């Protein structure tokens, strides 16, 4: 059976900040939702994979060495592999991350992601 998923319901079911909840898999890509607030990660790159952020609720920035891109509800951004970036979340944000399986790790999530 094929099931539908409501992203707002799934991300709202997360009890604590910085907890990645896998909501699906698309070929070799994992789809995770999370809540974040008052957090700026270190600059990092993903050498082998593009990364997509979709803003479900709230707003946040993706910082690059040459500036910021601001995302609001309904916006998404695809960060090409090898691009140095970091998420900057000042207020509560709920988002969906799509990336190749194995891209997320403890060092590029500020210690928040564990398998």
Automatic annotation (TrEMBL):
InterPro entries: Cupin_2 (IPR013096), PKS_Associated_Protein (IPR052044), RmlC-like_jellyroll (IPR014710), RmlC_Cupin_sf (IPR011051)
Pfam family, one: Cupin_2
Domain Cupin type-2 residue range list: 42-98
Name listed for the protein in its UniProt record: Cupin domain-containing protein
Origin species: [Clostridium] fimetarium
């Amino acid at each position: 059976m094929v099931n539908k998923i409501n992203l707002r319901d799934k991300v709202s079911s997360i009890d604590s900040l910085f907890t990645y909840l896998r909501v699906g898999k698309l070929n070799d890509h994992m789809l995770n939702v999370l809540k974040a607030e008052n957090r700026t990660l270190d600059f990092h790159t993903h050498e082998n994979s593009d990364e997509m952020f979709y803003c479900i609720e709230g707003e946040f920035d993706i910082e690059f060495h040459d500036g910021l891109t601001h995302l609001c509800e309904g916006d998404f951004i695809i960060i090409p592999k090898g691009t140095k970036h970091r998420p900057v979340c000042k207020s509560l944000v709920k988002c969906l991350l799509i990336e190749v399986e194995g891209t997320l790790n403890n060092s590029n999530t500020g210690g928040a992601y564990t398998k």
